[in-house]
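2024-03-11 09:14:02 INFO receiving multi-entity request
2024-03-11 09:14:02 INFO entity count = two
2024-03-11 09:14:03 INFO echoing inputs for audit
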Amino acid sequence: MKNFVVHQLLHHAVITYPEQEIISGNTRLTFKTFYDRVVKLANSLSKRGVKKGTVLGVLEVNTHRFLELHYASSMLGAVLHTINFRLAPEQMVYSMKHAGDEWVFVSELFAPAIKPILSQFPNWVYMGEDKNEELSDGSHHFFLYESLIEEGEKKEPDFAKETNEKDIFSIFYTTGTTGKPKGIRYTHHAILHGAIQLFHHLAMHKYGARVSSRDVYMPLIPFFHIHAWGMAFFPLYIGAKLVLPGAADPAHQLELIKREKVSWMNMVPTQLQMLLNQEGFENIKVLTGGSPFASGIAQQAHRAGIQFSLIYGGSDQLATAISVVPENVDPSSPEAMEWRRVGMRPLPLVEISIKDKEGKEVPHDGKTLGSVWVRSPWLPEGYYKEPEITKEHFIDGWFRTGDLGFFYENHSLYVADREGDAIKSGGEWIPTGMLEAVISEYPAVEQVAVIPEKNEQWGQRPLAVIKATEKVTGQQLSDFLLTKVKEGKLAKFWIPDNYLFVDEIPLTSAGKLNKKALRKQYGN
Amino acid sequence: MKNFVVHQLLHHAVITYPEQEIISGNTRLTFKTFYDRVVKLANSLSKRGVKKGTVLGVLEVNTHRFLELHYASSMLGAVLHTINFRLAPEQMVYSMKHAGDEWVFVSELFAPAIKPILSQFPNWVYMGEDKNEELSDGSHHFFLYESLIEEGEKKEPDFAKETNEKDIFSIFYTTGTTGKPKGIRYTHHAILHGAIQLFHHLAMHKYGARVSSRDVYMPLIPFFHIHAWGMAFFPLYIGAKLVLPGAADPAHQLELIKREKVSWMNMVPTQLQMLLNQEGFENIKVLTGGSPFASGIAQQAHRAGIQFSLIYGGSDQLATAISVVPENVDPSSPEAMEWRRVGMRPLPLVEISIKDKEGKEVPHDGKTLGSVWVRSPWLPEGYYKEPEITKEHFIDGWFRTGDLGFFYENHSLYVADREGDAIKSGGEWIPTGMLEAVISEYPAVEQVAVIPEKNEQWGQRPLAVIKATEKVTGQQLSDFLLTKVKEGKLAKFWIPDNYLFVDEIPLTSAGKLNKKALRKQYGN
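2024-03-11 09:21:47 INFO inference complete, emitting structure
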């Protein structure tokens, strides 16, 4: 087999590490029993008409069943639509229709959400333990997941041998911040290379979220987000134990960590913050990213013995860079801590270019901001059935990320902001992400989002929206920022004119600050 | 660039780690200055007619110049023939003609070897520092390597952008044990994936020759052998320091190790033995393989703080498996030591199958021997211009390695022997490699090769040819082996009938025991 296709990983895993475990809540499988379930499921679906190109939508958290669907779908040559359940209901249905879902797999968790849309999709599979009377009312095809497995033969579909690495393996819908969801399709080749290259790179860097075959992995990033940042593949690839948390809350996540000796996790900073608030969360390796990582959380994580790395990437570019401590920096120094939080090195084979408005490369000087462009062997082809939006972002083999960033002199990347979020004050850019990172160093600041305010003299000026843990005034924050100006961390004109203290800052479906909502609510 | 081609690694390296070093004897380059030399060389060769498909033969040890040729050749779309200088002279010339070498690059080390064949190849490049009057006698095209670089412009050949990952990057000739040299061509895709996958795998296993971006690498495996087992690519890929030893002997290798803080090396067991005989060779990570690894050397290496892993593979299959300590074994135990020496796990994406004479998979029981077959995404297409030999070994996408082996119950692989070397005694196989490994545990045994002797009653019986460090008798060895029979390490009928004590055991060009020569000399 010269191909690199998803279910090939499972073949390798089951031959080489048949006794290795997959834990999903209270379900314990070995790679061998997992494989048997996958084959029977694929066989059963094949008999019911699922074939090359059939789109299978899945509405589920991280469980063994969702993982099984990855490998069964690959054996069938089907397309896995990992439904983004954080989209608004009408957007979710839009994505399911746009992708062409012919089968929808749904767990009991999402049963209430699908009731109104049952008639809109031809085949449903219920992933709960028992029949759900309310859903299976006879007016549509309704299957039980466990019955499908029970009825399946232990025989791989013939198609398993024909799957090609250039075939589409999955599709996922992102919102970005504006407009309708955009679909991105991943080939076997792209998704496997992109995901696994990330772990290869992590394995080679001595500090941070280093991976090894002896670690025990638990992804908190949902499968719908680039297959849990590749966690749907990596533990089987390397023969390591995988723990799937389902819908566990932080307290239950901690129980799983202790019980299964979890040593490596991925999560967004918000999830890390929640876990750090639990007694006894410590000595775990954590890969995080997706939103700015406040130095307060970094310090707290460090004290708890959490070794972390940051990842830069996204659904439309896959993994691009991770934070590393440069070779000349003492890995135990406070400077190294800073590097873990900010300095990104592209993965091998990824090219990153930062361009000014004229499309010229900016100097690597630690300050000149520009647009971040990315090129890699696993870049998707564009947005599904959206030629216009694709043309704006995928140009000459490069992807325009929509991020603003700069290169340090040592060629590490700092991502400062989203292009749409940066504030233009007197003709100069203020990168809000960078400004937020400095403001968040103030102890009482739990979350901060900086948005633009209209200003007659300057065009725009920054407004800082703040969720604080204790009382703090704008004056105190401005004084604090003035000391940071002296340390060279920001320019004086970045200091916000106004501060707004709120109880809650709205987040997007990906757990990022929802600046669009904030601008709508507070901006002008 | 959706391609994965060799010079792409250099682009990545020079952008991301421009100040990282390549040391070659007393020459010190950075990735940046190395890149400049490569581009000027490629430009210069391009102007002189080197183009896509031109075959460039190189006769040189591991130096920066040979490494430069890797990347310049890739930019030109040329084919690098890494000439196997351990072949007999007439075989070497055969390989150069068979490959179609149009240019031959040769260092002063090999000047005497090429004098008789100058007229047979059109273009020569001398890689020494100065002109060589004797060679450049005007009767053929003769260039000086450093002049080519000097004359080159700092402009990549246009072709650099067009190189495709399915293009041939290099060709190499192996002898095996019989017949004329066989050529194997590697595409960019195959050679990069095969090589780098090996290091990815090493990076993930906690013990043994683990790699990281902070290690300093020195390959003793010559570039002609699968590009120094991938070392021509990996340090640039990950941004690590590379030290090239040229023709350094063990004492000078040790000087380089100390001076450049080398922490990771690859070598055959014979080279390891020689280095262990040097005072002060210690605390290095070593990847070794290619011939059975005597437990005496393993013990000595362990005492010197050498962390080693074994690799299984070859020129015609590339990297296939590495030794690892299974998950349930305490990594500090003597048992773990044994595992490092014998238990192989296939690299992810590699499939290994052991078949009996009927082509049926043998049970994984730790003893049933069979033929080792391999399938992987980087398997070569076959032997160059040898359809018949290709048909015997490359079958249905699989490669028949010609090795005999078995699987342990935990699905690790043990390679026991070459199919042609095993002895058939009374209808039962005696795997000589395995028997040699046990005999080599006897302290006075430095090297041992077991070959067949004709025997009227049994067909064949084993004869052990031994190089000893002190006086030892056959009786002592048989007594020793009897204790090993009781430990379950071998069957009683494996114990050799005869022992032959010699001063020197002949080795092949790859440093393996030359059993063909031994059988010719001592067998019957």
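2024-03-11 09:21:48 INFO post-check: The two ends of chain A are 59 Å apart (CA to CA).
2024-03-11 09:21:48 INFO post-check: Chain A touches chain B at residues 1-4, 8-9, 11-12, 15-18, 20, 196, 199-200, 203-206, 211-214, 237-239, 324, 327, 345-346, 348-351, 375, 377, 379, 397, 411 (CB under 8 Å).
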